[in-house]
Structures are given as structure tokens and as C-alpha cells.
């Protein structure tokens, strides 16, 4: 039986019923992001669609969670996601399929995403929630991401496209070349898309998670 602490990520697609061909699009995008995240050792298992528009994964690399969240939000556009993260024990050996695994991390992840759906964390809309045994951690990280998501909800499609390209190679000139834009336009899109705030959140939140669960 596994004794290590893991993070379970459960995500679903907002307004999925209004998107024709959503399941095929989701599968294609998840295949690409699975390859990317497995190569970078950000997750332990490929993303797997477990029910309808919902998908899951598991990672033992806890400080990577914020980077995973940011990458998912950028790479899966135009799909918008609710993301619940549960941190705790996993009762089984970490191997696919993910929907056959169990343990408190899965229970916490389910609680987290249900809190988003019920809008029970704050009086404002959020897209991301965490749950664990550590209530002090939960309160702090959920406030960080609640404020973070206030910015995320304002980012336009063009700004996300620029962010996605810049995440791969953080160079204004290279990003501008790939998008066929002026470097000044890329810079403006990143600024108006809150790229610096998103990147800083991922950095600080990753450190906070790592220190809390080391």
C-alpha cells in the first residue's frame, strides 16, 4: 500500500454541452498535454477522461501542481476548466487506469471540485480549488487561487494564445515569429493577459505547496 503523499487532479469542462465535437477535441488536447507533462515528469499518469467531460491524473511532484494548472488552462483552450486538487494518500499502486485508484487524495479532489460547482468557497466565482487535511493550507491556497481566478476569467482567447506560445519559449521575438505578430503586440497581449501575475502565482504557490507537504 502506498504511503507517500500525492496530488490528484480532477477537472471538467465548463459549458461542455454547448460545444459540438467537444469529446473528440478534449481527447486530442489531453493526448498532447499528457505527452508533454509525462516527459517533464510533472505528472505520474497520463490524463484520462473518466466520465463525460471530466478527466483526472495523479502526481507525486507536488510543487509542480501550479505549473500543471497554468499549462492545462493554456493548452486546452478554447475549453475552459474547473480544476479540483486533492492532496493526501493514495491507497493503491500508482498505475493506469486512474479511475481504478482510490484513497483520501481522490476524496479530497472530489470535494474540491464540488466546492467549485456549489460556489461554496467565496462570494465570487472561482475555477480552482484545493482540499487536504491541512485546513490552514486549504484556506491560504484557496484564497490565492480565488484572487488568481478573478484575473483568469478576464483573459481573452488571443491573450491565451500568446501565453501558450510564450510558455513554450519565453522570448518575445520567437513568440512574435510563431504568431506572426510584432514583438510589441506580444508584449501587450502578455501584459493585458496578466502573464506576470500568472507566472508569479505558479512560482510562489509551488514553493508554498512544497514547503507545506515536504
CATH class of the domain at 5-134: Alpha Beta
Shape: globular
Care to count the β-strands? 5
**Major sheet summary line:** 5 strands, mixed
- Quickly give the structural class: alpha+beta
Q: What radius of gyration results from the CA coordinates?
A: 17 Å
Strand residue percentage: 5-15%
The CATH superfamily label of the domain at 5-134 reads Reverse transcriptase/Diguanylate cyclase domain
What does this structure look like?
The protein is of the alpha+beta class and 214 residues long. The protein has a domain of 130 residues: Reverse transcriptase/Diguanylate cyclase domain (Alpha-Beta Plaits), CATH 3.30.70. The chain has 8 helices and 5 strands. A 5-stranded mixed beta sheet has the order 2-3-1-4-5. The radius of gyration is 17 Å and the shape is globular.
Concise overview:
The chain is α+β, with helices and mostly antiparallel strands.
Protein topology:
Layout: E1 5-13, H1 22-39, E2 48-51, E3 54-59, H2 65-75, E4 81-89, H3 104-118, E5 128-131, H4 135-152, H5 157-168, H6 172-179, H7 183-192, H8 195-212
Helix pairs in contact: 2-8, 4-8, 5-7, 6-7
Salient structural properties:
single chain, 214 residues, alpha+beta, Alpha-Beta Plaits, 8 helices, 51% helix, 15% strand
Amino acid at each position: 500500500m502506498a504511503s507517500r503523499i500525492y496530488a490528484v487532479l480532477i477537472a471538467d469542462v465548463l459549458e461542455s454541452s454547448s460545444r459540438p465535437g467537444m469529446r473528440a477535441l478534449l481527447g486530442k488536447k489531453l493526448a498532447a498535454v499528457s505527452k508533454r507533462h509525462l516527459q517533464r515528469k510533472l505528472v505520474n499518469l497520463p490524463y484520462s477522461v473518466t466520465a463525460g467531460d471530466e478527466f483526472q491524473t495523479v502526481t507525486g511532484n507536488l510543487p509542480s501542481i501550479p505549473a500543471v494548472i497554468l499549462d492545462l488552462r493554456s493548452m486546452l483552450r478554447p475549453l475552459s476548466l474547473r480544476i479540483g486538487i486533492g492532496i493526501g494518500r493514495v491507497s493503491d499502486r500508482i498505475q493506469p487506469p486512474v479511475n481504478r485508484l482510490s484513497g483520501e487524495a481522490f476524496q479530497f479532489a472530489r470535494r474540491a471540485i464540488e466546492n467549485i460547482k456549489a460556489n461554496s468557497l467565496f462570494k465570487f466565482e472561482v475555477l480552482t480549488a484545493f482540499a487536504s487535511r491541512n485546513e490552514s493550507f486549504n484556506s491560504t491556497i484557496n484564497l490565492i487561487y480565488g484572487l488568481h481566478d478573478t484575473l483568469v476569467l478576464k483573459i481573452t482567447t488571443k491573450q491565451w494564445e500568446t501565453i501558450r506560445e510564450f510558455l513554450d519559449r519565453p522570448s518575445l521575438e520567437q513568440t512574435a515569429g510563431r504568431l506572426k505578430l510584432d514583438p510589441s503586440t506580444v508584449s501587450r497581449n502578455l501584459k493585458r493577459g496578466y502573464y506576470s501575475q500568472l507566472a508569479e502565482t505558479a512560482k510562489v504557490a509551488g514553493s508554498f505547496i512544497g514547503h507545506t507537504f515536504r
